[in-house]
Structures
1.
Amino acid sequence: MHGLHIWTLSSRRIALSAHLIVESLEQWPTILAASRHTLADQGITHVTLQPEPLRNKVHWLPAPAQRLRQVVQE
Ligand SMILES: [Zn+2]
């Protein structure tokens, strides 16, 4: 997980957004439901979660490594 943001919409409504790294997008419906459930238990009801397949991990890597990944994939 990264890009986590939590803020209040009102005195009683808490919002959260984050990116979740998942091994495959097929798992996403299950992960999303479980995450929403866990967050609701914590009183966080306004949730925006973005799935990121593991292969997109380059999202954080500096440019040279990104080029390396492209080379490896070609
Ligand atoms: Zn991200």
2.
Amino acid sequence: MEQQPASVFLSLQESALGLTMRNSPALYPVVEILHIIGFVVLVGSIVALDLRILGLGRAIPIQPMAQLLLPLSRAGFLLAVSMGFLLFSADASHVVRNPAFQAKLLLIATALVTVVIAHAGPWRQVALWGNKAPGSARALALASLVLWLGAVCAGRLIAYL
Ligand code: HEM
């Protein structure tokens, strides 16, 4: 017998929010566009900073670059997650069982763990780095690059699975 989705997802899908997202022809595409803008700003700024930490663009000092890109990545994250939740509410009981969606959330969660480790660890000494990041920061930057780009790939595959 097919496994029933947890009722919390069915209640979200049948809630006023889920119904509004499904029944308003313009709302879903607008929210999806905002979702895309959110993760483009998020992943774009993270990829640029991670590549700098990995050694690209050595003429650009790391700390001022981070001061520009980190707030941007936070804003992009908040937009991507809030709009993503709205998209999810429209069809929660099905999307929650989508392996690409599950993989995306796992990649995002793991990427957030690398953010916490980075900021609790090597980034505390960023002012002392000069123009070359320490090995620990480069390893975390490589992991972050793979995880966030992986989340984008998984996100795109949601529609196909
Ligand atoms: C924060 C990092 C996130 C990234 C990088 C991301 C990335 C993506 C990508 C690349 C797509 C495909 C867009 C398209 O091709 O049209 C997508 C779709 C989607 N995302 Fe996200 N997403 C993120 C967060 C979330 C969250 C937190 C949720 C829900 C809780 C979510 C729910 C969805 C849903 C439901 C779709 C499918 C939309 C559709 O096909 O109609 N996303 N996401």
